[in-house]
Amino acid sequence: GAGVSQSPRYKVAKRGQDVALRCDPISGHVSLFWYQQALGQGPEFLTYFQNEAQLDKSGLPSDRFFAERPEGSVSTLKIQRTQQEDSAVYLCASSLEQRGGRSQETQYFGPGTRLLVL
Amino acid sequence: AQSVAQPEDQVKVAEGNPLTVKCTYSVSGNPYLFWYVQYPNRGLQFLLKYITGDNLVKGSYGFEAEFNKSQTSFHLKKPSALVSDSALYFCAVRTMFSGGYNKLIFGAGTRLAVHP
Predict the structure, then answer these.
(1) What pLDDT is stored for residue B70 in this prediction?
(2) Which of A44, A91, A107 sits opposite B102 (nearest CB)?
(3) Whole-angstrom distance, CA of residue B23 vs CA of residue B89
(4) Nearest-by-CA chain A residue for B106
């Protein structure tokens, strides 16, 4: 079946420009995560959705970062007024987690969007 | 604070030899542990996980990992390396009580190079 897809795969933005990154999770997956992976580093958690509800946004680095999942499927991560330090790979992951459970579910990752801010 | 350490930036092995990629963790409570692999310009691919039960976990592509609670380690192993195993490997952890969802904390990664 189809995995997690992300678009665009690559994005070059001028400093100060707004960008929007899209994630299509695996169909039926309740949970959706965004991670940021800086060059040479492991992924770092940004935010988490359970269906359409954003339950944790503790990892968003500033108020320039905004994520939404209005219908509980596709998610968009928006970065306003991009800065050079925003350059990274943005990974989306989904998992089949049930509300309130002690989840053992595996997160499945998309290919990522590589963002370069000039 | 929860953390994961991968003490080796790079591991080099000859094809056909056994390989080990090290991971240690620090969490409160019982850990859930994961290994992922990342090929160039690709996302993370799940290899295996430890939740509970047998300390030796078998995963994809012939990989296995051993959970050692006393040493707080979860080393990734394979009996016979292939050149195609060359990639970036990430260890990750979450605890059972991190808000009821599967928020992962990743190590910095270990680059595995298998030479012919």
Answers:
(1) 93
(2) A107
(3) 10
(4) A42
